[in-house]
Write a structure and sequence with these properties.
The complex is a heterodimer of chains A (313) and B (525).
Chain A (H helix, E strand, L loop, with lengths): L1 H28 L4 H6 L5 H11 L5 H13 L13 H37 L1 H16 L2 H15 L15 H35 L2 H8 L4 H38 L5 H10 L3 H29 L1 H5 L1
Helix pairs in contact in A: 1-12, 5-6, 5-8, 5-10, 5-12, 6-8, 7-8, 7-10, 8-10, 10-11, 10-12, 11-12
Chain B lengths: L1 H36 L11 E6 L17 H4 L6 E3 L5 E3 L2 E6 L6 E6 L13 H13 L5 H4 L2 E7 L2 E6 L6 H4 L12 H4 L15 E9 L3 E6 L13 E6 L3 H9 L5 E4 L1 H9 L3 E14 L13 H9 L3 H9 L4 E2 L21 H10 L6 E8 L4 H13 L3 E8 L2 H9 L5 E7 L3 H9 L14 H12 L2 H18 L2 E13 L3 E2 L16 E2 L3
Parallel strand pairs in B: 1-10, 1-11, 14-15, 14-16
Antiparallel strand pairs in B: 2-3, 4-5, 5-7, 6-7, 8-9, 9-10, 11-17, 12-16, 12-17, 13-17, 18-19
Helix pairs in contact in B: 9-11, 15-16
Classes of the chains: A mainly alpha (313), B alpha+beta (525).
Chain lengths: 313, 525
């Protein structure tokens, strides 16, 4: 186990380098820069050059990248090219919002999706087909549209949840939960469908295997068969989907955070991209990469827990 | 055997169905409890907290570096030398009186308000104002051009003289809150100007509360304990919340999460039907900029008759009504009615026959193709698309290239890649429009460096004229722009502010379209 963790962490180093370098290069292809944005329509070549120098974006791309890497080695993510604020505290204050949003979505989707999947696998028929229909419907609904509809109904009409904004957990746990309900439901719509379908298919497959028949023949209670044996085997592909879902939700959070005005990394990524803020964009890419590495590691560990064969390798 | 298996399966399904139902019920109960746990957090603007929404966070809180579009973030903390009132007139701010000395609008004297302290406790003196203005002049910010070529002389403890190398008739406007230069910074803070990006050090009614601020999300302000005019402090706290999506901002307003938002015409009707105050004033002229007036990229544009034909060919009233409804104003001018330079008479009516006649006289009886770079920002391309339909009727085909990234659009414009552009330009007094819009020095909107001697002579003459003469000269400048048809203005798009009932002072006007948050107050006061 420690070797697995060490290997994963070592592999993350080139991954971070590649992702951050790609981020720098791709961002450089977008037209304009922070200085042009700050000057707006009052563009003047001399002031533009002066501002570029002040912001440090007049240097060649490779030098900017090197300075950024050098900063990381010295424990600093640098300063925003747009507003001059230190990047790390900004990202740290927003990381929790995105993680709570994504974790909440994964938990809610897993709970509902797996329940639906198990029930439809055991019952089949209309319920099974309903899960299929639900999957398609959930995937087809654009999250930003669903978010706006939920706001119109549950925030504006019923006033049950806030339309926008985020309340930190420590300020008020109840308000924190309320601020996350609608965004989590918005993101969960598609995720529930995917997990339900994956769980149903995996459960049907496992329930037809020989070892399940053998367990039934030995008179093992059905609940034990389903929970302890079938679900454990069926959970492996579901865990894979959950891992992928988590990673996918990081990008999915971009739109939802904008619609609900949540101060997370997703909305910051949109803002920083518009502002051509290299240090912030690169910082977000670094954070997302590290989150992906950790999630993949957890998925690998979960495989080992679910399947002793994997542990033995 | 089969029967018993089926029975078992049915029993199991029922059990799972019950388990699933219980799980769903539990989740629903959690949601319900969460919803009922506390009432929706709302703002009561009666002297408590004022929350206002802005779409974009500021690039800096330093008045010398902030983009003019984000002025609300510093309006709260920095009093200007001269307040430009809601009605569009100059009022005393940190300066109690001011005047031009002699003729020619080159010497300007200010007397400062006594006993004023900045939020950090430093005193306002003529020297501190001089230091602040010199700091602004040296910066690369938007105020720098207004201060370029000017020298500042302390003539008394509270008296300052500004001497301009060339005439500048609008110093009172330039030293007001909107043009940033007049927002005076504390001399103590200027010793370490880097801190100004993330904190405030002005002599305004509020001061940034860093403990209530999360950069890029919300900015909290608390009353400035040293403020000279305590009656003007209407709230115990003010928060500017960044909400990028205009629909989300409107929803926040409807649910009382915010009190005032900077709206737009796409959500104006919805705000009105929700019972919100919808305030607006004409601000931005939208249409075409015919930049290539020497015909380098599009030969027909070199002929004034062609440019005039384009102005005759557009049905401004129909386009404006269709796109902006009751909020828009048809226009053929670059300035807003009531501002310096606005003319009362109409030059171009909607007359396609006249347009065809002018095109034929210029040698283009069958029209021509005109490449236009435009942007979807601010609805500019919508206006251009509507114009294209009218222009096709006289044979002129607009080849619209719509940029969704504004930067790309500006980059193309500055590089003079297109003979014409879709334009949206915030109407200013004509003197201030000169360097930004039509003089050869206007780097963005005059990339071909078009020059018109009559126009420049009029501009120079108006700059040095007294107020009475200048009014007529300003109108002559605008009329010259109309006659030379350097632009095809179509509509004045308004700037919008939506406010909850109970908030007063949200009153934009043609003379001051950007309302100042320090004027917002609870209706009970």
């Amino acid at each position: 186990m420690p070797r697995l963790i060490a290997r994963r962490l070592l592999l993350s180093i080139p991954l971070v380098l590649i992702v951050s370098a790609l981020t720098f290069v791709l961002e450089s292809f977008t037209p304009g820069d922070a200085a042009r944005l700050i000057l707006g329509t009052q563009f003047d070549p001399a002031r533009y050059a002066q501002l570029r120098e002040q912001l440090g974006i007049n240097q060649p791309l490779y030098l900017q990248y090197w300075h950024w890497l050098d900063g990381i080695l010295h424990g600093s993510l640098g300063q925003s090219a747009y507003d001059g604020t230190p990047v790390a505290p900004t990202l740290n204050s927003r990381l929790g919002v995105t993680l709570f949003l994504v974790l909440g979505t994964v938990l809610v989707s897993a709970l509902i999706g797996m329940t639906l999947g198990i029930v439809s696998a055991l019952r089949g028929g209309v319920l099974g087909r309903s899960v299929d229909v639900l999957s398609l419907a959930g995937l087809a609904l654009p999250s930003f549209w669903l978010g706006l509809v939920l706001i119109a109904v549950f925030a504006v009409a019923i006033r049950a949840f806030p339309a926008t904004g985020y309340v930190p957990l420590l300020n008020s746990p109840a308000d924190w939960a309320r601020s996350l309900v609608l965004p989590v439901i918005t993101l969960s719509a598609a995720a529930v469908a995917v997990i339900a379908k994956q769980t149903r298919d995996a459960m049907i497959d496992v329930l037809e295997r020989e070892f399940i028949r053998a367990l039934r023949a030995r008179g093992v209670p059905e609940r034990t068969i389903v929970f302890r044996h079938a679900l454990r085997s069926a959970a492996i592909p579901v865990v894979t989907v959950l891992g992928l879902l988590f990673v996918g939700l990081l990008s999915g959070s971009v739109l939802v955070e904008s619609v609900f005005a949540l101060p997370g990394l997703g909305s910051l990524a949109v803002q920083a991209t518009i502002e051509h803020d290299f240090p912030v964009i690169s910082g977000i890419a670094l954070y997302f990469t590290l989150v992906v590495v950790v999630v993949n590691l957890l998925v690998d560990l979960a495989y080992g827990w679910l399947n002793p064969k994997v542990r033995a390798r | 055997m089969r029967t018993s298996r089926v029975t078992r399966s049915v029993k199991t399904s029922r059990r799972w169905a019950r388990w699933g139902a219980r799980a769903a019920a539990t989740l629903a109960a959690v949601l319900l409890l969460t919803a009922c746990g506390s009432s929706a957090k709302t703002n009561n603007a009666s002297g408590g907290t004022l929350t206002i929404a802005q779409a974009v966070p500021p690039n800096s809180l330093d008045p010398a570096k902030i983009n003019q579009a984000f002025e609300w973030y510093i309006n709260l903390a920095y009093d200007p030398l001269i307040f430009w009132s809601a009605q569009g007139t100059p009022q005393p701010g940190l300066a109690t009186s001011w005047k031009y000395v002699g003729t020619g609008n080159t010497t300007f004297e200010l007397t400062l308000r006594p006993n004023v302290k900045f939020s950090d406790g430093s005193a306002l003196t003529a020297q501190s104002v001089k230091d602040s203005l010199e700091y602004q002049a040296k910066s690369a910010g938007q105020a720098a051009p207004y201060l370029a070529g000017k020298t500042f002389t302390v003539t008394g403890p509270l008296a300052l003289r500004i001497t301009a190398a060339t005439p500048d008739p609008l110093l009172p406007r330039e030293l007001s809150q909107d043009y940033l230069a007049g927002n005076i910074i504390s001399p103590t803070a200027l010793k370490n100007p880097k801190q100004l990006a993330t904190s405030t050090a002005g002599a305004g009614p509020y001061v940034l509360d860093s403990s209530a601020t999360v950069s890029n999300d919300h900015y909290g302000y608390k009353p400035n304990p040293n403020y000279w005019n305590k009656d003007a402090v209407h709230y115990k706290t003010v928060t500017i919340k960044v909400i990028a999506n205009s629909n989300s901002a409107l929803n926040a307003l409807k649910t009382r999460q915010v009190d005032v938002v900077n709206g737009d015409y796409t959500t104006a009707a919805a705000a009105e039907s929700a019972g919100m105050q919808v305030k607006y004033a004409p601000q931005v002229f939208v249409g075409l900029g015919l930049l290539d007036r020497d015909g380098k990229l599009s030969k027909p544009l070199a002929d004034v008759r062609v440019r005039q034909a384009l102005n005759y060919a557009v049905d401004r009233k129909t386009i404006t009504t269709a796109l902006f409804g009751k909020y828009g104003t048809p226009t053929e001018q670059t300035v807003v009615p009531g501002q310096d330079g606005a003319v009362d008479s109409q030059t171009y009516g909607y007359d396609p026959a006249k347009a065809k006649q002018l095109l034929a006289a210029a040698g283009y009886p069958n029209g021509f193709d005109l490449p236009v770079n435009t942007t979807s920002f601010f609805g500019i391309s919508n206006v251009n698309q509507a114009m294209a339909s009218d222009l096709t009727k006289v044979g002129v085909n607009l080849k619209l290239k719509i940029e969704t990234v504004v930067d790309k659009y500006i980059q193309n414009m500055v590089a003079a890649k297109y003979p014409a552009i879709g334009i949206g330009y915030g109407g200013q007094p004509i003197y201030l429009e000169g360097p930004g819009l039509f003089l050869p020095s206007a780097a963005t909107f005059n990339p071909f460096k078009s020059s018109d001697k009559d126009l420049e002579d009029l501009y120079a003459k108006a700059a040095a004229a007294n107020d009475t003469d200048r009014k007529a000269l300003d109108q002559q400048i605008e009329q010259r722009l109309i006659d030379e048809a350097w632009f095809v203005p179509v509509s004045l798009s308004p700037v919008f502010f939506f406010a909850r009932p109970g908030v007063t002072g949200v009153e934009p006007s043609p003379g001051q379209p950007i309302t100042n948050p320090v004027w917002f107050a609870p209706s009970g006061e």
